Amino acid sequence: MSSMGRTFIKDRVSARKAKRGADHIRITELAALVEQLAQALEDASPDHQLASNARQYLLQTNLINQD
């Protein structure tokens, strides 16, 4: 394989790794927003089922840590 071909492959791999990193950051940010929403709903009404469901979903998908 030519050096140009190897460089092309390395660039593609680097681009994929960067995209996965960016996706992880977006997922982390989304999880934080959902957690804030769940907390706001819980503060408004501590027994609100939507807040409980949102928090349970995040825990099940490991998007937030269990306290």
UniProtKB/TrEMBL annotation:
Name assigned to this protein: Uncharacterized protein
Origin superkingdom: Bacteria
